[in-house]
Amino acid sequence: MLDTINLEVLFPPRLIPELLNERGQAWQELVNRVQQSPENSLERVAFVLMMVRISGCNTCHANSYRALQGCEACARQSLRRFRGGDQELLKIYEQAKHEIVRYLTTRDESGLKV
Questions:
Q1: Which of 11, 45, 47, 103 has the fewest CB atoms within 10 Å, counting from its CB?
Q2: pLDDT number for residue 50
């Protein structure tokens, strides 16, 4: 049924809590920390960027299998298929944070709280 499909352009931050139990303790601590951070915080934006990269959101389109299964299912599957450990995911997350900070230092206008 089309009205139950949950497709957004990029990984939706509202799904962060739904991913809590997909990995080990280090991942759970990251998810808890991120979901407690303010809506437009660096932590949330970095988490979204990490998930976009892991899940391949930039190549998703309305007719793709991933879009048909929905963002939550795709994110869960991407985390299960990720071959690295939780520490590798945390490194990707930290790298995303550094990239965002680097980008923001070149921009004067931003709604992010760094």
A1: 103
A2: 96
Of 32, 36, 77, 41, the C-alpha closest to 57 is 77
Q: Which residues of the chain have pLDDT under 50?
A: 1-7
How many beta carbons lie within 10 A of that of residue 63, not counting itself?
A: 7
pTM score, two decimals? Answer: 0.83
Question: Residue 112 in contact with residue 40, Cβ under 8 Å?
Answer: yes
SS3 30: helix
- Of 18, 44, 48, the C-alpha closest to 33 is 44
Closest alpha carbon to 75 in 94, 63, 89, 95: 89
The single residue listed with the structure tokens 């303790």 is: 25
Long-range contacts of 99-104 (CB under 8 A, 24+ apart): 99/49, 100/42, 100/45, 100/46, 100/49, 101/42
